[in-house]
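Researcher: Please generate the 3D structure of the following complex. Treat every line as part of one assembly.
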Amino acid sequence: MIQVRNLVKTFGTFTAVNDISFDVAQGEIFAFLGPNGAGKTTTIKMLTTMLKPTSGAIELDGLNPQVQENEARKRFGIVFQDPSLDGDLTAAENMEIHGVLYHVPRKVRQQRTEELLKLFELWDRRSEQVKKFSGGMKRRLEIARGFLHTPKILFLDEPTLGLDPQSRNQLWGHVKNVNEKEGVTVFLTTHYMDEADRVAHRIGVIDRGKLVAQGTPKAIKEQTGAESLEDAFLKLTGSTIRDESAGSADQMRQFAKMWGGAKR
Amino acid sequence: MSAIYILWLRELKRYTRSRAQIVASLGQPLLYLLVLGFGLTPVFKRAGYGSYFQFIAPGVIGMSVLFSSIFSGLGLLWDRQFGFLKETLVAPVPRIQIMIGRTLGGSTTAIIQGLLVTVICMIAGFRPVSIYALPLAMGFMVMIAVLFSALGVAIGSSLQDMQGFQLIMNFLVMPIYFLSGAMFPLSNQGKVLTFVTSLDPLSYGIDGMRSVLMSREAFQPAFGTTTDLAVLIGVGAVLLVFGAYRFSKIEI
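Model: Done. Output below.
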């Protein structure tokens, strides 16, 4: 379903994704794990047509997302890592816009909006502007919105960030459900190793832009001789904390990027 | 088509929900209209040009359309900051439709804003040459609004964040306004100013609005309505294509 070959993405002199290759089969739940700044989100951005790769090849359901952008976009749905709601609109209106953009017929749209908002306990607040929502509620709405249409591939970029255990439980239950019942292929990233261990069929571990291990959770644990996936992860990626904050050089780069926007 | 409609509707909803902003954005045109309009009328009369208040009113209407259409286009930057832009960019809708929806939505709100200012001008004493002139003036408002919304989208697509906003304001939006002849007659100016003002698309929009709203005794068109129309449509079409191209190249 997803094929990635020798994918590279560089920003100036910084290599965010460095020559990674992997496959995700149809109907599989694939967890992409890695420390902060390892290149997870950059990879997802390239898979979902938001960024153009520097080199390498991607295939989504047999399509090249760089060339057949729109066809590829019809195949997937995505829950972003950072917010992507319109705060001036209500919860229901955010769902409505998503439904229209993804060509969900009106009847299905209304019915699924109700189901999903009830599932994520937002139905009573559906007519309120999203900017009045708490962080957790916004997150739940993003997730509910991601499930409004049924894609072939679902990308979940750290979907459980900022969710309480109840909502996490609902989310993973729902993910398993669409995966089993509707055969949706799921590509997810998370920092919670127990979640990955529980839900994912296969795991890829990325560190500093390189894919350092891939296989079933069991295989990865055996390969590293670790008891838990968390230990395996620490063995693979080391225990130093990664620094993601922008230094002054990054800020200059940002500034240059702003004005050289056309040339990138 | 439904994508264009829903994004147009979104712009409209956002506009009607920000009442405080609507009121605030009427403040600046009001200042120009009332302070300059009444303040400069005696001098203007003595120079033989008639009432400055009647002269500046179409300019102030053009100004409010210019500002709100460019800012609605730049609203792209807010959407980028708050993330909603991503949601529309990965949707299986051709980007041209997303751009058109945004541009039409921005133009519509700018036209509403222009009509509000027109009403205020008329309450304050502005008298168009006839009531039939108003739909014609609105036609010019539509063209100004579409042209500058497209320009706003083109700029918004090229900037990464709000840091460039002040620059755009001071080196693009204000010069467009000041060089458009919104505040002074374009005829009988020196060569340099005549040349520079003829490069400003807003000059043609305001010249067109004055041509239809004011009598020939009160105002001599600088370009003539045919030229005004041709320039506005031509430049508008070019900017729409350019904006759509820039928008299609956005990476996040």
